[in-house]
Structure formats: structure tokens, C-alpha cells
Amino acid sequence: GIGFAIPSNRAKEIMGQLIEKGRVVRGWIGVEITPLTDVMARQFGVPDTNGVVINQVAPESPAERAGLKRGDVMRKFEGKDVTTAESLQEIVAGTPPKKRVKVQVIRKGRPVALSLVTREMPSMEGEMPSREEGGQRGRPEDGDTSLWEGARLATLSPALTEHLGVPRGTRGVVVLDVEPGSLADQMGLAGGDVVASVNQRRVQDVKSFLKTMGDVDLKEGVLLDVSRQGHWVYLSYQKGQ
Known about the structure:
Elements: H1 8-21, E1 27-28, E2 31-35, H2 38-44, E3 52-57, H3 62-66, E4 73-77, E5 80-81, H4 85-93, E6 100-107, E7 110-117, E8 119-120, E9 146-148, E10 151-155, H5 158-164, E11 173-178, H6 183-186, E12 193-198, E13 201-202, H7 206-214, E14 222-228, E15 231-237
Antiparallel strand pairs: 1-8, 2-3, 3-4, 4-5, 4-6, 6-7, 9-10, 10-11, 11-12, 12-13, 12-14, 14-15
């Protein structure tokens, strides 16, 4: 009793690809994206929550060659409005490979126009390791840690950098473990996370993290830049939301 409707133009497109190539061809630009929240919009200088945040740019991808960067907020793709992550995925997938397209992003509050050439979507790679693995290795002694809102923290050391797969030269604080139900847990932090910035302000150690968080109004929201097992992610949290 359940039916699914496919737009006629999409059905014709898929039918043509199957006849010509024997498979469905999808466009690809090489970005990992995340939904744009109210907190992110304020931090990145975007007037509303229409758009997506570029979380990662794949090396040697069309996006990297075009100059797209992590933290850019994409608003338009080939003249079409990008309102959600799903809308961008649908637009890009429906764009044929080797096509030059124009994209519009907001970078640090300013509009930027770029041009890129799409490629065919590559085969999927292996899965990411589970988030629990990172917090179990290279743990410092208890005397070197501090507690904050249910999270036990330590300053990132060279030994921890190697164990957690964080790029060399990264500064920040390591989340060793998180108490379930605590504020840190509600913010999405987990053992093994490395917090490098708070509201785009770099944190060098536990002391600077605590000072920066002390200046944050959680009712306005906070944006954390986090390395999770060597993979960078944005975590946003707003009290009452």
C-alpha cells in the first residue's frame, strides 16, 4: 500500500544512463557537508539558515581545485538555491560529470563566487572507525586533568597527538571521558575528541579553554571545532534548543 513517485525528468535521465552506460552516473564535487544551524549562521556571518556548511574538502577533488574551504557556507549551486544538505546532494547527484558549474558561498561573512568542474562519483571507501575508540589510548595521569561540565579534560600533548591521529602542530584540549547526561554530553562531546576552537577562538590548553568557555553565553549558542579520530567536525549547541 506504499507507492513512491519519481519525477518524470529524473526517470528519463536514469533510463538514458542505463541504456547508454548500463549504470547510473552521479555527479561529485568532493565535499562533506553539515546542516547550517542558527549558531553556525551567526558564527559564519550568514543571514539565515539556508545553506550548508562545508565540513571537509577531499584532496584533489573538484571542490579543492575550485578553492572551496572548510567553513564555507554554500548557498547556490549552478543558480539553484541550496537550502539543506539534502537539496545540495540532490542537485550535485543530478549534475553530469565534466560539467563546469558556478557556486556561491559565504566565507567569513562575505559572498564568494567560484567555478568548478564536476566529476563522476567515486566508489565508497571503508567506514569511519567508531567514535569510542579515540578516548582509550594515551591517557595522561589524573593529576594532569581538569573537570568541566561533566567532561574530564587534558591539554593536548605530543604523545596524545600521535595516539589520537591529530595533525601535527594542532593545539587544543583532549576530552578524556564524558559523564552521561552532563552538559558536555548534551553538546555532543565524546571521549577522544580534541577541541581546537570555541566560537572560532583558538584554545591552546585547558586554561584557555576554560577562560573562553567562561565568556560564552550558551543561550546565544556555542560552536566547537573538534577533531574526532583525525576527522574534523563542527559541534553546535544552544541552551534551550
